[in-house]
Design goal:
The complex is a heterodimer of chains A (218) and B (1018). Chain A is built from five helices and six strands, in the order E-E-H-E-E-E-H-H-H-E-H. Chain A is α+β, with helices and mostly antiparallel strands. Chain A folds into two domains: 2-161, Longin domain (Beta-Lactamase), CATH 3.30.450.50; 163-217. In chain A, strands 2-1-5-4-3-6 form a six-stranded mixed beta sheet, with helices on both faces. Chain B has 36 helices and 29 strands. In chain B, strands 3, 5, 9, 18, 20, 21, 23 and 24 form an eight-stranded mixed beta sheet that branches. In chain B, strands 10, 11, 12, 13, 14, 15, 16 and 17 form an eight-stranded mixed beta sheet that branches. Chain B is globular and about 75 Å long. Classes of the chains: A alpha+beta (218), B alpha+beta (1018). Chain A binds chain B through residues 12, 14-15, 17-18, 20-21, 24, 108-111, 114-115, 117-118, 121-122, and chain B through 342, 344-345, 413-416, 419, 422-423, 425, 462-463, 509, 511-512, 551-552, 735-737. Chain A: This is 25.3 kDa vesicle transport protein. Chain A: Keywords: Coiled coil, Endoplasmic reticulum, Golgi apparatus, Membrane, Protein transport, Transmembrane, Transmembrane helix, Transport. Chain A: Pfam families: Longin, Synaptobrevin. Chain A: GO terms for molecular function: SNAP receptor activity.
């Protein structure tokens, strides 16, 4: 059963539409919404992700498809057939592109296509019951292949971004540290040089002074 | 303060105060006509007069004028003043009378002025201290033979107190006195129409050109020096008219009213016609906008005074409420719509510290890289996308493309950070009582029909959601699934544990389920036609509606026809017990009885549900409890006592249609920010306060206004200007989240007179009425009225003290021009439905409903309600041909006095909520016949006004239509009444003629006298 539906632009993570009464009877809807937002953020950073993916989170699964720089995402129970979920997203995608296709790139405000929620609502109802004739027919239809769609865990996915961030952070730290190290080394080198030759120079200086004084005095 | 009244010692009518205090009923301002009279509070009983110490100078001066006059010790320097800075002054030194002219040039600047000067530069009204000289100047002209003596005397004109503290100028005050008597001979030649006693007051010199008529109107007897002084103001010098006229106009800053009363009579001796009346309706003071042209329009934000006091002591002396009235979504006329700005990726520019939105008063510095917040003066960085270079004057070069930097009212498109969820769709949920009384009154029919006719105009297509619940002793749900052909009804009779029988489809998308909804509405009236159920399970039904709506929020419209009698929230017939009036228990009647209502209101607000209550019963329905739901959810109470569809149908139809179709803002919050040092402390209106200063408004529309009071946090404000910014974050019906921002600036002043000059009566009364209504919820009606009266008196007294010394006001009543209606509106407020009388005057439900309504009314509407218009129309109806401009002519409002009702005339009384059409006894039968049709002779209470096929009737309808169009928020239902038709005439019209004295209430003239007497007392 579809719990939540969101449509966002991939380029900047701007939410474009959302199912109407999402998160009704869902205990921690807020948490899942946060996860979805984090996911969109990740996508907008341009990590190359597959255009279709399922991500497990707690007792639910996020399914999303990315098409034409728009990400269509839904959250379902784990038991809900994957095939149906992706069918549902395809339906949304087709309608969304048909209605709003031209304005997607120019949308400037969040939820610019909130009117689409009525369609989401309607479509959702069609997919509510997995045992309706229509849905069984769809399940049996082999045209649409979903087996290769990767399934990952949400921690993993959100983690990737985090890890990459960490790596780049570490490397940048490394660069700055090494620069400091080089500076320090140069400095030490100079000091060592001074320490090595300073006594000799002083002795010589004294000798010269003495010589100079001698010639002058005598 | 003993200084206020120089004329006091001579007041012959003084003793009559004491009798007055023991209150002959006629003088009593507002005694309830019910049995509660005994509880008359003594709050405004005058204190027996005691001679204030300050009188001494006067009496001393009286007997020995010549001595003082020639007294060399009279200081001339402090008195004379001509600061060359003030523009009005430039004119001054060149009056055409040579004798006087010799005085001005050598005047020294007045002392004590500096604090005032900065604002003076900007303010068009000349400061008060200039006046005295101008008044003196003419004096010599009035008595030519004494010219030689006079220049010095004019030098002696009392120096007005620059900081309005009265003790300062007193020494200066004496000298002019002596100068006066010497003029007496000339003066006394004039015929003296007034009796010699002090109680005679002079006509006001308020108008700029008062000269012609007032010349002879003073007649101070030589014996009384003080009186001579009072009259000096009036003595308008025939010869000097042109020049002084200019000066006078520039310097006059208060108005006055002569109040005269003859001891032992109740005749106030006031000329009724000369009293100020707001016949032009609400006049918004324009000086504010002129001063700061970038301020938002006053229709959105009005301050009670456009001059903010700089110190707490000044606040304490300004006895009127200090604050603002905000009508966040006021309807803008064509072409003045608020511009919508989308910052898109830049994000909304706000101050880092105080979160102020960017506005016209911020300043850009550092070549445009930084901006300084005008409210907390923090220096903020300008984001890269928003950067623009500055021109030579320091203004941004892209100013004309940035409406937010030139306009005080703008709207920003909110980015995602301002949303906790996607914008909600507009949602209307109807909770309809279908018990027998509702069926009988025909309410269901009208409601169903109206909703059906409005379906197409509901805002927010195609997202709009709609749902219905009906209830009597059970709760009925309706499944409106789009695939059905007709709605399915589900009955839940378990009231103790109410549940929602269906998870979905009780609330449906209207565009999809349109057919089902229409079928439902068509069949609703017939469905319950034969219902004989008398119970009302209001509480459980409300809970059910709450459960259905809680996912989305929205607007809940409740149509309630009887007292809730079943389940949770059941109410008792606690009724209107007359014994309770006048006791400490009185206010409890006006509070919700069951905590369920307040708790429910809090929950509803939390889930963004706004409630509008429509109540119809002819019996007690405890509006006080029901209205609480509306009060805390930003809603509104509509009350149609003894509703009959035949009579009140039109009103309900119009108001419900308006409620459904007007532009509504959803899930809104509002906050008002202001500069450092001041703070908004209390908020008044229909809303729920979420944190200390955040108003939660589940639904807002153009007919709601909110008032707030401010206070000074610091003892002294050092800034020159304070800024206010109102921000309303809301979801528009189209599904956009927006932020409406209004910015206004106001000067900080050090002078009380300036505050009074910039006062805004409308805003003051908006606040006043809310304060008074709130007071009736915690105490007796009597107390609320008394505290109101006390405030009026204190304010006027303070004002009087400002000017009493240098103007020798005597017994004149003075008030600032800006507050000339203060007394009248005060009186009107006393006589308004929520506050007037006691038990018998207004039914409890009506009183509570009016209270809830007035708490939300915008300023203009409130003033109309307080002082309704009365228009005579028979002449227009009889005119053979009507032109368009005629129409304006007939819209002339008349004072609300019964004397104005000519028995040959036909009048319309319009208070914004209803019309009363009054037929004079001798109005020509033709008119009546034409307007009322064949049954014109019948009892008018049974006649409804319909359009007949004749010119006259059409014209009347046109007038009514025009009047209604001027303000569509409520529908005025016409009531017809014939002169002498008691008791209807009394109830409908006469009791509303607020200037009249009616059963235990004061008339306008008496009221003025009463206030005036109290002002004079200390």
């Amino acid at each position: 059963m579809v719990k939540m539906t969101m449509i966002a632009r991939v380029t900047d993570g701007l939410p474009l539409a959302e199912g109407l009464d999402d998160g009704r009877d869902l205990a921690d809807a807020e948490m899942y919404k946060q996860q979805v937002k984090a996911l969109f953020k990740n996508l907008s950073k341009g990590h190359n992700e597959a255009s279709r993916m399922s991500i497990e989170t707690g007792p639910y699964v996020f399914h999303y498809i990315i098409e034409g720089r728009v990400c269509y995402l839904t959250m379902c129970d784990r038991a809900y057939p994957k095939k149906l979920a992706f069918q549902y997203l395809e339906d949304l995608k087709n309608e969304f592109e048909r209605v709003n296709g031209a304005q997607i790139e120019t949308a400037a405000r969040p939820y610019a296509f909130i009117k689409f929620d009525t369609f989401i609502q309607k479509t959702k109802k069609l997919y509510l019951d997995t045992r309706t004739q229509r849905n069984i027919a769809k399940l049996n239809d082999e045209l649409y292949e979903v087996h290769q769609i990767m399934t990952r865990n949400v921690q993993e996915v959100l983690g990737v971004g985090e890890k990459l961030d960490q790596v780049s952070q570490m490397s940048s730290r490394l660069t700055s540290e090494s620069r400091i190290y080089a500076d320090k080394a140069r400095d030490l080198n100079r000091q060592a040089l001074i320490r090595k030759w300073a006594p000799v120079a002083i002795v010589l200086g004294v000798v010269f002074l003495l010589f100079w004084g001698k010639t002058k005095l005598w | 303060m003993g200084t206020e009244n120089p004329g006091r010692p001579n007041f012959p009518m003084r003793p009559s105060f004491t009798p007055f205090a023991s209150a002959p009923p006629t003088v009593r301002p507002f005694s309830p006509s019910g049995p509660g009279t005994g509880s008359e509070s003594s709050n405004f009983r005058p204190i027996p007069p005691g001679a204030p110490p300050t009188m001494t100078p006067f009496s001393a001066a009286g007997p020995s004028p010549p001595v003082r006059f020639s007294d060399p010790s009279v200081p001339s320097a402090p008195i004379a003043s001509v600061p060359p800075s003030g523009a009005p002054y430039q004119r001054f030194p060149t009056p055409p009378f040579p004798s006087a002219a010799q005085a001005p040039p050598n005047r020294a600047p007045p002392m004590g002025q500096p604090p005032f000067q900065p604002p003076a530069g900007q303010i068009s009204v000349p400061p008060p201290f200039f006046r005295p000289q101008t008044q003196v100047l003419p004096v010599p002209m009035g008595s030519p033979p004494q010219n030689a003596n006079f220049p010095p005397s004019s030098m002696n004109v009392p120096q007005p107190p620059t900081d309005s503290s009265l003790s300062g100028p007193r020494p200066n005050f004496q000298p002019p006195f002596p100068g006066y008597p010497s003029k007496q001979p000339a003066v006394s030649q004039a015929p003296s129409p007034f009796p010699a006693q002090q109680g005679s007051f002079m006509p006001p010199p308020a108008s700029p050109s008062p000269f012609p008529s007032q010349q002879g109107s003073y007649g101070p007897p030589p014996v009384s020096a003080t009186l001579g002084y009072q009259s000096r103001d009036q003595m308008q010098h025939p010869g000097s008219a042109p020049p002084t006229g200019g000066v006078q106009r520039l310097t006059e800053d208060f108005s006055s009213l002569s109040v005269q009363s003859i001891p032992g009579t109740n005749d106030p001796g006031l000329d009724n016609r000369s009293l100020p009346r707001p016949l032009d309706g609400d006049v918004v003071p324009s000086s504010f906008l002129e001063m700061y042209p970038m301020n938002c329009d006053p229709r959105y934000l009005r301050l009670t005074t456009a001059a903010i006091p700089n110190s707490q002591s000044l606040v304490a002396r300004w006895h009127l409420p200090l604050g603002a009235v905000v009508c966040p979504l006021a309807e803008a006329p064509e072409g003045e719509e608020v511009p919508v700005i989308n910052f898109a990726s830049t994000g909304i520019i706000r101050c880092r510290r105080c979160r102020t939105y960017v506005n016209p008063y911020v300043t850009f510095t550092d070549a445009g890289r930084k901006w300084r917040c005008n409210i907390c003066s923090l220096l903020n960085d300008v984001p890269g996308e928003y950067f623009a270079n500055l021109d030579a004057t320091g203004r941004r070069i892209d100013l004309d493309q940035r409406p937010e930097l030139i306009k005080g009212s703008v709207e920003f498109v909110a980015p995602t950070e301002y949303m906790v969820r996607p914008p909600m769709p507009p949602l209307y949920f109807f909770l309809i009582d279908v018990s027998i009384s509702a069926v009988r009154s025909g309410m269901i029919e009208v409601v169903a029909e109206t909703i059906r006719s409005c379906l197409d105009e509901l805002p927010g297509f195609p997202r709009t959601q709609i749902g219905f619940i009906t209830y009597d002793s059970t709760v009925h749900f309706y499944n409106m699934k789009s695939s059905l052909t007709q709605p399915q009804m589900m009955v839940v009779s378990d009231l103790d544990d109410i549940f929602v029988p269906l998870p979905d489809d009780l609330l449906v998308n209207f565009s999809e389920s349109r057919n089902v909804v229409e079928t439902f509405l068509d069949s609703l009236p017939s469905m319950f036609q034969d219902n004989v159920n008398v119970e009302s399970a209001f509480g459980p039904a409300l809970k059910a509606a709450f459960m259905v709506m809680s996912q989305l929020g929205g607007k809940l419209l409740i149509f309630q026809n009887s007292l809730p009698s079943l389940g949770v929230g059941r109410l008792k017939l606690r009724g209107d017990d007359l014994r309770v009036y006048g006791t400490d228990e009185e206010h409890i009647l006006r509070l919700p009885e069951d905590p369920f209502y307040k708790q429910m209101a809090a929950d509803l607000t939390k889930y963004q549900i706004g409630v509008n209550i429509y109540a119809f019963s002819d019996k007690y329905t405890d509006i006080a409890s029901l209205g609480t739901l509306a009060k805390y959810t930003g809603g509104q109470v509509y009350y149609y006592p003894s509703f009959r569809s035949g009579i009140h149908g039109d009103k309900l139809r119009h108001e419900l249609a308006r409620d459904l179709t007007r532009e509504t803002a959803w899930e809104a919050v509002m906050r008002i920010r202001c500069g450092k040092g001041i703070r908004f402390t209390s908020y008044h209106g229909n809303f729920m306060l979420r944190s200390t200063d955040l108003l939660a408004l589940p639904t807002v529309d153009c007919d709601k206004a909110y008032a707030m009071q401010l206070s000074l946090e610091e003892t002294l404000l050092t800034t020159q200007t304070v800024y206010f910014q109102v921000a309303l974050l809301y979801t528009a019906s189209c599904g956009e989240r927006r932020i409406r921002v209004y910015t206004a600036a106001a000067p900080v002043v050090t002078d009380l007179g300036e505050m009074y000059r910039q006062a805004d009566t409308g805003a003051i009364f908006s606040l006043f009425s809310r304060l008074a209504i709130e007071k009736t919820l915690t105490g007796k009606l009597e107390d609320a009225r008394n505290s109101l009266q006390l405030m009026l008196v204190k304010a006027l007294r303070e004002y009087r003290n400002l000017y009493s010394v240098q103007h020798r006001l005597g017994a004149r009543m003075i008030y600032p021009e800006s507050l000339k209606f203060l007394c009248l509106y005060g009186l009107a407020l006393f006589k308004s439905v929520p506050l007037k009388g006691g038990y018998a005057d207004v039914q409890l439900d009506e009183r509570c409903a009016a209270g809830f309504t007035m708490m939300a009314l915008p300023v203009k509407k409130l003033l109309k309600l307080l002082y309704p218009s009365l228009i005579r129309i028979d002449e227009y109806l009889l005119k053979p041909s009507a032109q368009a401009d005629d129409f304006k002519n007939i819209m002339k409002r008349l004072p609300l006095v019964s004397e104005n009702l000519d028995s040959r005339g036909l009048y319309i009384y319009d208070d914004g909520f209803r019309f009363v059409i009054w037929f004079g006894r001798m109005v020509s039968p033709d008119i009546a016949k034409n307007l009322l049709g064949p049954d014109f002779a019948a009892e008018l209470s049974r006649v409804t006004l319909t359009e007949h096929d004749n010119e006259m009737s059409r014209r009347l309808m046109k007038i009514l239509k025009k009047l209604r169009e001027s303000d569509p928020s409520y529908y005025q239902l016409p009531y017809l009444v014939r002169q002498g038709e008691q008791p209807r005439e009394g109830l409908l019209l006469l009791v509303n003629l607020i200037e009249d004295q009616m059963g235990g209430t004061t008339g306008y003239a008496n009221w003025i006298t009463l206030i005036h007497r109290q002002v004079q007392q200390n």
